[in-house]
Amino acid sequence: LFNLFSPSEKPPKSLPPGPSTFPLIGNIIWLTKSFFEIEPTLRALSSKLGPMVTLHIGSRPSIFVFDRSLAHQALVQKGSIFSDRPKALPTAKIMNCNQCSISSGAYGPTWRILRRNLTSEILHPSRIKSYSHARKWVWEILFDSLMTKAKTGESVEVLSHFRHGMFGLLVLMCFGDRLSQEQIEGIEVVARRILLTFDRFNILNFWPSVTKVLLRHKWRELSQLRKDQEEMLIPLIRAREKAKQEMENNESDDHYVLAYVDTLLDLELPSEKRKLNEGEMVTLTSEFLNAGTDTTTTALQWIMANLVKYPDIQNKLWVEIQSVAGDKEEIKEDDLQDMPYLKAVILEGLRRHPPGHFVLPHQATEDTVLGGFKVPKNGTINFMVADMGWDPNVWEDPMAFKPERFLKAGDFNDELFDITGSREIKMTPFGAGRRICPGLGLALLHLEYFVANLIWKFEWKAIDGDSISLEEKQEFTVVMKTPLKAQICPRKKIN
Ligand code: HEM
């Protein structure tokens, strides 16, 4: 144990401080709450106790880190120790097929192969480029539905439009571009039902051997949910396998763009000397669809809400877009790199309203030390994303929406700002280190592309008499408590 510490550093005995609780009751109370519900309590504790706080949730200590340099130490400098995930709860294990997804997988060779497959085969910039036709298709559908509303003068509740577009885009990247709108909608209905009902099964985790008898109907309901997911996705996986074989045998000469599921069908797990089974592919494909839908949709909604709330920022953005686009009908992806203010608006949205207020829970693989406190092997450690992006020592007037803070003398301050946090963490909406969100580049592209086109084609205004409320609530992500409703007017006459 002692050689984990440098000679001058004494091994700390104690965990970071936390509230005193009655051992059993206190621990169970925390188990019944979501992280969003305990966030204000954690903040109050941190202001009294310091930048690291421990809560005993269930049988394990959970450590919460508020300080950005401690987060950098853990996630980046000591990344090899802090990159594991805690054991999933029994209900989660059913949906994530025994932690075979990338986000839930233990830090080790299988996780590494799955993550590398996703990043190098699908999320690599050149591959992302090959899906630009899908983004254009989705934009056209979104544009048509918004235009219909704009023509009738009806106000738009943007959330469902945005979510549907984002989900459709990921479905095409996942299963190929030969799916119809109806098929996409079918997949979305099942995915949404799982996302919205999953929390109802938390109770089953309290004492699984007992609940398996007393609440067996509920367990059956959960198994049915997983079956519904398999029944929806397995036919798509098999259809793609067949299409792939036909293409390889040259029976089809159609234009064929690689999809995520193709890479999973080919993948070998050398450490286990086998290929993936269908259950694992169901888990990995639904992870792909879910990880990128609500997160990006939530960010898009917050950004658009701020552009409605602050018309001068919206106008400044429009002026920039116009200077690049001239009289173009539509903003192309290549145009985006000439729009520094757009990038600043997106970053400010992610800083001020990160879709997740915590990164996913991490776990230490060995006893270690952080901030002078002990972090035990297998202890859970959480990082407070929102608080880091609101740190007044880094960000002046942190709760204000000011994209200009990312610009230096009118230009995007790329040199000084690093969203991956590899040198220093100043905000961390995608996490940092070995578990950093692999979808970061895709998410930023989606946000830039859609925000640019939404602002280019329409003027967004608050509905008369409405003020835009920035109150939050937790769904899967931290969303607007009062979803954005806006009046939209076409910017130019469209034939
Ligand atoms: C604005 C959009 C997004 C945000 C804010 C976001 C944020 C995050 C965060 C905070 C994590 C956890 C990092 C950690 O535990 O340290 C994460 C993990 C992950 N994200 Fe994203 N994400 C977004 C979009 C996407 C997209 C588009 C994809 C893929 C299509 C994606 C795929 C993943 C995966 C697979 C993981 C697990 C990584 C691992 O455990 O190794 N995300 N994301």
Walk me through what this model shows.
The chain has 495 residues and is of the alpha+beta class. The chain contains 18 helices and 15 strands. Strands 1-2-9-6 form a 4-stranded mixed β-sheet. A hairpin with a 2-residue loop joins strand 10 and strand 11. The structure holds protoporphyrin IX containing FE. The site of protoporphyrin IX containing FE has 24 residues, from helix 14 and helix 18.
Task: Please render the helix and strand layout as text.
Elements: H1 23-31, H2 35-49, E1 52-57, E2 60-65, H3 68-77, H4 79-82, H5 90-95, H6 109-122, H7 125-130, H8 132-152, E3 156-157, H9 158-175, H10 181-197, H11 208-214, H12 216-248, H13 260-266, E4 268-269, E5 274-275, H14 278-309, H15 311-325, H16 340-352, E6 362-363, E7 368-370, E8 373-375, E9 380-383, H17 385-389, E10 407-408, E11 411-412, H18 440-457, E12 458-462, E13 472-474, E14 478-480, E15 485-490
Parallel strand pairs: 2-9
Antiparallel strand pairs: 1-2, 3-15, 4-5, 6-9, 7-8, 10-11, 12-15, 13-14
Helix pairs in contact: 8-9, 9-10, 9-14, 10-12, 12-14, 14-15, 14-16, 14-18, 15-16
Keywords: Heme, Iron, Membrane, Metal-binding, Monooxygenase, Oxidoreductase, Signal, Transmembrane, Transmembrane helix
Subcellular location: Membrane
Pfam family, one: p450
